[in-house]
Amino acid sequence: MTREATLLLIISGGLFAFFFLAIICSWFYSYFRELNTNKVRRQLVEMVSSYFKANHEIKPKVLERINAYVGRSAGRKDILIHVLIGYGPEFMDNNQEQLMEFYDAAGIKAFLIKGLHAKSDNRKSLACRYLGELKVKDTEPYILELISSKNNDVIYNVLLALSKLGDTKGFVQIFTHHSENINISSRAIIEVISVFNGSVEDLFKQTFDSSDDYIRGVLIKAAADYRIEGLRPYFVDHLKSDDKNIRIASIRALCELKDRDDERHIIPLLEDKDWEVRAAAAKELEKLGTSSSFTALEKTTGDRVWWVRHNAAKTLILIPGGKEYASRIIDGDDQYAREAIVSVIELM
Amino acid sequence: MYLLRMLIIYFSEFCMLYTIGIYTFYNGQMLIAFFDIFSYFKKMKVSDYRRYVESKNMIPISIIVPAYNEEKTIVDNIKSLLALNYYEYEIIIVNDGSNDSTKEKIINEFNLKKVNQPVMQSLATKEVLGIYRNNEYERLIFVDKLNGGKADALNAGINVSVYPIFACIDADSILENDALIKLTMLFVEKPETVAVGGIVRIANGSVIKDGKLMEMKLPKSKIATFQIVEYFRAFLTGRTSLSRLNSILIISGAFGAFNKKAVIECGGYKVNTIGEDMDIIVRLHKFMKDQKRKYRIQFLADPICWTQAPESLKDLRAQRRRWQIGLFDTLMNYKSMLFNRKYGTIGMVTLPYYWIFELIGPIVESLGYIIIPLAYLFGLLQFDSFILFIAVAFMLGTTLSMGSILLEQVTFRKYSTFKETMLLVLFALIENLGYRQLTILYRVEGIFKFRKGRHSWGTINRKQFGSKEKEKSVNM
């Protein structure tokens, strides 16, 4: 027993000593690393800034200095990339040509393309991310090669990079031929589309009809925020979809266009077989509803689902003239409809 | 005498084996935690979570804050929640029949009016007396109900909430700016997620202004500093590693987010229990496994919620007793899952670990503290063996704390000065010279008071954040 205890004591003593030394070493390492990183960042900020301010004769000399300073250090390259990202998207757009020259000469483009072929998914994701942030042109085919990855972070960053590079062709290809690889949530896809640097109208038109139901629903949801008149026929058409998510997305997208003529397309959906669709129709009618919706909304305030009743009541009250119309419901026999209207009025 | 001698000898051997077992498990946990936190850091490097802060596209969330006798801090807390950086959320304050002026303060401060809002009774709760709102504060909903305990208040909040995800936050907790977004990101990235917990850190000693933590410092109170080391062990090492195995059994009641549908499906929070935060997680596991559904319950060591730790032994005792009773209660309620292969890692690893090491551990340890010195006094143990036992217990306990401090040091580095780091090391060392034994004693007391105390709440005095004089009474 004593032998085991002694052994245990030696092991724990060794671990204790190791952890103690590791704590001290890691503290000093972190401290000096931070100092060094800040120093490198300051130097690079200064050099990069002088590069962009310099005239054509001096530029190569500054570049030489930067290359000599960064050398083969991946860490310094990473800091350089962050310094460039710090200039912001506007600067990237306005100095595209100059930046592309810089990326090539400073080896950033080659470094990031090499990152796309790394074994680690994290490095691949990071390379995609940087290529997108820096808007490094002509790297789209390399990025697209990663679309078969099984890692969601890689897929997300591939989409994000292509989006920032405004690569409509690549996007269409992914949404129409590789949609089974996209296992990220609809919110993430919408977020990616929201930073798309090309023509979103073209992107939607080319993908609506040839993508699967899931992607189509997501694209319609994303399109709603852009209020593109040219997409109206698509939205109206998809109100008849068999997929309830597509119907809901189309209701929202169509109502975002705020054209009262579209009211006639939405009213029938107050009687849809799925309550989520009825609730969406009742809610969105607020944006373009007129007195033509009153009768249908009155009927919907008596719906069997609370959310549908609530949305219908709220919309009815908010449409001009609706409040007066709703007083009929308060005096009526339908208790559910009455409660829905009263609770909405109290909140106004 | 012979029997006593044999008992002591066998118990010493058992103690040694038990110690080897527990520390092997803990060190394994630490190893997993190191890998997990490092991979989380790598992931966060490529994560796009900051984009979602302003995004219309982020999952909307209902923040439920159960409140009982919180008159001194509730208004400030609501103000800090109203200022959160999140695109779409609602704050549901549930007054659980406070007998101070909590209700009046909220209504007067935010000029709330009683509304006739029907509530979907997804979960049974004590009667809701009224719902109050004001269009000027669209996000804020105040629910006044009869007293039914924290779980009942949370259930009432769930009934009133409109969004698919809800977060429960203690009325006197402070969230870091991007804590909510980091927590909800997981629901976006992994739709099978049903619950996510964030780390709870101790705010005692830190500088807090207008509901925001401005500067992190170690507390002056030694008891609170000991707890910082304890929290490192429990959260950074323990919960992180169990989360990695998708078998975490506790998400702190102070800060967690849940998929509302999943919680309603499994019956909501269990009322009349002291450990409702552990109960809901174990029940979610059981429900999902029974239904053979793919699901995920995760703990993240990064989204931070700041809370106050007890600074007096009286409060510490009440807290530890309560935790142990809650643990015992939950383990008893779900004993059918123990060693049940149907529940995978939870049934075969996590629950046995909780039973053997977390529940029974304090009893074994306290018996060790009694029997081994007795053995030495009765001449059954030689002096060098006795010293060896004491040294082993001390070293092993310290090693774990040191490992957790190292983990904190190489990852989050919240306590960044060398002096603070060394102070934490010192506290990790002296923790085993009294403090640990005290907490063990409190936990043993919790086991023995289980029947009596499982439906009651201890009262703990806390200082208000940012104030040194005022004290308030909080139901824990």
From TrEMBL, chain A:
Keyword Transmembrane: yes
Tree of life domain: Bacteria
Chain ranges passing through the membrane: 6-32
Record keywords: Membrane, Transmembrane, Transmembrane helix
Matching Pfam families: HEAT_2
Protein name listed in UniProt: HEAT repeat domain-containing protein
Gene source species: Paenibacillus spongiae
UniProtKB/TrEMBL annotation, chain B:
Record's protein name: Glycosyltransferase family 2 protein
Top-level division of the source organism's lineage: Bacteria
Source taxonomy: Bacteria, Bacillati, Bacillota, Bacilli, Bacillales
InterPro entries found in the cross-reference section: Nucleotide-diphossugar_trans (IPR029044)
Transmembrane segments: 351-379, 385-407
SUPFAM superfamilies assigned: Nucleotide-diphospho-sugar transferases (SSF53448)
Record-stated family: Belongs to the glycosyltransferase 2 family.
Keywords linked to the UniProt accession: Glycosyltransferase, Membrane, Transferase, Transmembrane, Transmembrane helix
Source organism of the structure: Paenibacillus spongiae
One Pfam family cited in the UniProt record for this chain: Glyco_tranf_2_3
